[in-house]
Amino acid sequence: RMLSYLPLCHVAERMFVEMGSLYGGTTVFFAESLDTFVEDMKRARPTLLFGVPRIWTKFQMGVYSKMPAQKLDRLLKLPILGRIVGRKVLAGLGLDAVRYALCGAAPVPEALLLWYRRLGLDVLEVYGMTENSGYSHVCRPGRQKTGWIGQNSPGVEVRISDEGEVQVRSGATMVGYYKEPEKTAEVLTADGFLR
C-alpha cells in the first residue's frame, strides 16, 4: 500500500507511486489534503513510503508537540518499554505498517535517520533527480549506512570526476532539456553522464 501525496507530476510521485503500482500491483491511496495528511496516513497504513526530509521532520515535530524530546528519549532507552513506545509512536503517525521507508530529494540529517531507527523504522536514503527519472542510487534494507545514499541501481554507471563531482549515466538519463542546448551542456558531459 502507498499513499500518494506529492504532485502527480513530481518525478518521485511518478516513479515510486505510479510505477510502483503498475509494476508491483501496489494499492494506492490518495491524500485528501495537507490538513488531513496524518489521518490519510492512518487510513492508508502504507507499507511503502517515500518522503522528502521535510516530511520526515514534520512527523518528528508532530511527535515532539505531544511529548517532549527528553521524555521520549528516556522512554526509548528502556529495553522492553522502549520498543512498545516506538511502535505506539509509529502507529500514531500511520507508519506502523511501513516495511520500506525511503527518503530523498535533499540531504537528510543523520540524527533524523537515527531517531526513526530508535522508533523501529529504518528510513533508507535514495538519490536521483528529475533529469535521470529519479533512478540512480538506493540503500537496501539491512545494508544501509547513515549518510550513504546506497548502491547504484542496476544499469546505472557512476564515476567521480577529477573535480570530485559525482556523475551518473543510465538508460533513464535525459537526452537534454527541450530547446535548451546551453543548459543541457551544463548538466550533461560530452559522453552523456549527468553531473
Describe what is shown at a glance.
It comes from Aquicoccus porphyridii. With 195 residues, the chain is of the alpha/beta class.
How does this structure look, described?
α6 links the parallel β4 (100-103) and β5. α4 packs across α5. The protein has a domain at 2-121: Rossmann fold (3-Layer(aba) Sandwich), CATH 3.40.50. Strands 3-4-5-6-7 form a five-stranded mixed beta sheet. Helix content is 39%, strand content 16%. It has seven helices and nine strands; from the N terminus they run βαβαβαααβαβββββα. The two termini are 34 Å apart.
Topology, please?
Elements: E1 2-4, H1 11-24, E2 28-30, H2 37-44, E3 48-51, H3 53-66, H4 69-77, H5 79-93, E4 100-103, H6 110-119, E5 123-127, E6 137-138, E7 151-152, E8 157-160, E9 166-169, H7 181-187
Parallel strand pairs: 1-2, 3-4, 4-5
Antiparallel strand pairs: 5-6, 6-7, 8-9
Helix pairs in contact: 4-5
Number of strands: 9
How far do the termini sit from each other? 34 Å
Rounded to an integer in angstroms, the radius of gyration calculated over CA atoms is 19 Å
Helical amount:
25-40%
The level 1 CATH classification of the domain at 2-121 is Alpha Beta
The main β sheet shows up as:
5 strands, mixed
Which secondary-structure class do the elements indicate?
alpha/beta
Tally of DSSP helical segments: 7
Q: What would the principal axes of the Cα set say about the shape?
A: globular
Quickly give the CATH architecture of the domain at 2-121: 3-Layer(aba) Sandwich
- Write down the CATH topology of the domain at 2-121: Rossmann fold
Unreliable parts = none
